[in-house]
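Forwarding these from the shared drive since the link keeps breaking.
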Amino acid sequence: MKKISILLMMICFSAANIRAQQSADIQKIRKLYYETKSDIEYSKKNKFEGKLYCNRLIKNENNRSWRAVGNYHYDIRYWYHENPLALLDEGANPHNALKMVIIDGELSARKFYSEYLYYGLNLCFAFYKRDSLEVRLYFKDKKLIKQVGKFDDYSSSVDEIVDDAENCMKTFLASFGIRSE
């Protein structure tokens, strides 16, 4: 009986430690998120002076109706703190340049908004909004550690969000002539 009690206490202690670590990781991600958003707002208010640069990709800028889709428009902003080519020249990883990608889009009658926050080489946070649906995803070492909100039958999945974030990174690097494997 004593052994079972000790084992149960150890399991409870381990679970509490894991939750505490995840909570600390989420707090770090939130801090990074608010700092990055603050830097973005500062840049916008000060005619793009500040800590971050912004590259913008607009798909269908004139909002012409697309065949079989109707309304189609994407506005993608890549916020970064350093020229990835300079990082490459210094022997550093060019992936470290990108801080956040913000996508504002319209597809047929649906409007959507996404944010991808990167820390180093990895996606650490994703926010997805479509109509009244909102989902927040927290990652550590490429693993989902927390999900707030649920996807419905008509929206993306966690894997699709991660794939989109990776494609955004590849597109960002390609805009500088850097191939990403």
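-- next protein --
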Amino acid sequence: MVEFEGQEEEMSHFAVRPLRFQDGTLHPDALVPTIRFTVTGVSAFKRAWAQVLGDYLLLWIAKARARANSAAKLYMIAWKQGSITLVSSVFFIHDQLSH
């Protein structure tokens, strides 16, 4: 489960809770029951998608539309260990993609 805990200007706070698909309880393999982190430069309330891939969760966060001077970020969360890795930051400058 991914929750948006709050939002400031261009900053969003996340809480990821690894839950079991069967009954929605905390997953017994999760060493960290709630993984908290802050994302700057993008607003999670516009667009955020999550995909579970085995022991990992891919979390993509972006603005509603890719406009000039906007950003998108892709995170890989190892939900069993509770670690977070920023995989990619994409910035749209003058309506063109720039990595």
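The chain has a mean pLDDT of 79. The beta strands are 2-8, 11-16, 35-40, 47-53, 56-62, 70-78, 83-93, 96-98.

- D.
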